[in-house]
Amino acid sequence: MCREESEMETKRTFCRICAAYCGLVADVEKGRLLEVRGDPDHALSRGYSCVKGRRIPETVNHAERLRNCLVRNAQGEFETIESRDALDEIAEKLTEIIDQHGPRAVATFTGTGAWGNGATLEIEKAWHHGIGSIMRHSAATIDQQAKMVSPWFHGLWGGGAQSFESADVILLIGQNPLVAGQYQHGGPPGYSPTALRQARQRGLKLIVVDPRQTELARQADLHLQLVPGEDPTLFAAMIRQVLDEGLEDAEFCAEHVEGIGALRSAVDDFTLDYAAERCGLPADQIREATRLFARGPRGMASTGTGPSMAPHPNLTEHLVQSLNTLCGRWGREGDPVNAPSVLTPDLPRPAQAVPGDFLPPDLSPTANTEKSRIRGLRQLFQEMPTAALAEEILTPGQGQVRALIVVGGNPVLSWPDQARTLAALEALDLLVVLDLRKTPTTRRADYVIASTHFMERAELTFLGDFFFEKPFSQFTDTVSQPAGDLIEEKDFFIELARRMGTKLELPGGLLDPENPPNTLEFFEMVRPASKVPITKIARYEGGHIFDEIELRVAPAIEGLETRLDVAPAEMISVLRNVRNERNEREDGFTHLLVCRRVKHMVNSVGHDLPRSKNEKSYNPAYLHPDDLDALALTSGDRVGISSEDGSIEAIVEAAKDVRRGVVSMTHCYGGDPAHKAEPQEVGSSVNALIAVDRNYDPICGQPRMSAIPIKLRKY
């Protein structure tokens, strides 16, 4: 064997770009990552990997990768600073801010780049508790907040959702797991694009609701290509039809559901003909979809980013969950538990609705009672809503945010209301950003912390643990060696705590910053009640399905009388408002702009990578060819796009899969607004069309980020 061959190592690991957590095989030479590919022996993904995962070495070894920390000097320029000195200075400044303004003046934002790192999320939460600040924020409250709000009103079923493997029919709304990789309980797993095809071969029926004929919609038995933003109208009409035709699971409803009469009264005006007119769909198609889903007999309806970012997201989520409930689509006694979750305690999953205090703190309404200073918006998921953070920075008074730590995020491109975001970042006394490279956000920072890539640290499948339909878990050790003065995100908070004298209390006890635990000890502190010991999980290279965990839905707990509520007053009130809405396009707006995803990006992650010949460096404004003709436009033309809150320039492109009257664009593009660039070079910032203080959901402040009324102007 030659010397070069002997120095090559092959390591099994997993991707952390999204929650699919696909298994990977990595080639490493002298600590340098050379190549990754799908792991053919991985128990779940079985060799699959997406283009984002296969490009991981390009991110790790990128020529513009940050190798040292930076500090802004008195002249406003960045200069290199050793990480220990940066930590000393940041800790001192944070202590001064807390002493002068209180702990609420310190906030964090955890972006997509850090969400796959469970260690970071846990230690960041502990650090916040230690300093006494509730001002935690993340990407989850930008596009998925409705899923966290739903249990507060509808309630939660102890036995969980029915599994994808057991489904006869599924109804997927505003999601595209074949591109995004993200997936929902009861839906096709993101780590296996072939799973849907195999399920279709065994007889699964697929219904898709989406204003675009997505890759997923092309495989559907029924595709309801509705007018964007009309999801509540559609599902109110479907619920009305279920109840009128007696398609509900009467036995389940009688035993476990309340509010059916009030719900039927509230949807009375949502006839099929009325919904058909508003949604732009044939009434017969809505009728057929309702009957197909309701007759199941098994399978879930679930929403994705689309309706979560559109108007009335909490109402849409509530109506979809109510449809599941009326049709009895929850795990029954004796069913295998969907998503058995290896890393959580071995607790019974009863076949009944459970009260709020049964829920983990992230989901429990009784553990999320804090209010924002901005419009009284509610805490959720043990976080404050990101949509209010810019105003929390800009609004004077007690509790004004003066210091922000951004971990693996790019607010300039990802937060709604770009103009307000820019003003807020400039107004901070202290902005610290942890990232792999320079971004429009790091350019506004006081300190830029060069952080390790996930291939340069150990990890467990923390996030995937809540979604895997099998009792699977995987530990990965460090794959490649970090080059430079880099800091792991977890260690950043531990080192801050050591300098600030902050207690770090994890579920398994206090962490001593002076004597931090090793990797496995730390994970044991994060998940002390794991069904399988962390040390045992770590023994299985490439992960393992722990068949000894055979969780089944347990019998109902005697004496527990909680019921699922399909007609809470808050949701019924919003539904009545929806019925009285006027058509906003009468105000001069001609189209509705919707969000979409692309395979080579996830939010703002991936901008630094080279593109293939089929991948654009910008985000076209896709329109139906007939709309282009009506506007005297051709693909490649530059247009102005205006909403009531802002305007951008974009490049149009014809797409037959887009409904007429709709413009489809990917978010998190546009480059740095301070450095004017052509839209065909860096794309266009959809967030510049959005205002966070108008057209927002009143519970947690979700602004309208999709189904935005716009008009186009040719240049």
Describe the structure.
With 715 residues, the protein is α/β, with parallel strands linked by helices. Helices cover 29% and strands 17% of the residues. It has four domains: 3-60, Phosphorylase Kinase, domain 1 (2-Layer Sandwich); 69-138 and 360-455 and 479-521, Rossmann fold; 145-332 and 564-571, 3-Layer(aba) Sandwich (Dimethylsulfoxide Reductase, domain 2); 584-714, Barwin-like endoglucanases. The chain has 26 helices and 30 strands. The protein has a seven-stranded mixed beta sheet. A six-stranded mixed beta sheet has the order 26-28-27-30-25-29. It has a four-stranded parallel beta sheet with strand order 11-10-9-13. The longest helix has 19 residues, at 83-101. It starts with a helix and ends with a strand.
Poorly predicted residue ranges? none
Rough outline: globular
Question: How would a crystallographer describe the biggest sheet?
Answer: 7 strands, mixed
Q: In CATH, what is the class of the largest domain?
A: Alpha Beta
Count of structural domains = 4
Structural class determined from secondary elements: alpha/beta
Number of helices: 26
CATH topology of the largest domain: Rossmann fold
Using only C-alpha atoms, the radius of gyration works out to: 25 Å
Quaternary class: single chain
**N/C terminus separation:** 64 Å
User: Which range does the strand content fall in?
Assistant: 15-25%
Q: How many strands?
A: 30
In CATH, the architecture of the largest domain is 3-Layer(aba) Sandwich
How are the strands of the largest sheet arranged?
5-4-17-16-15-6-7
Query: Helical residue percent?
Result: 25-40%
Nearest-integer average pLDDT: 94
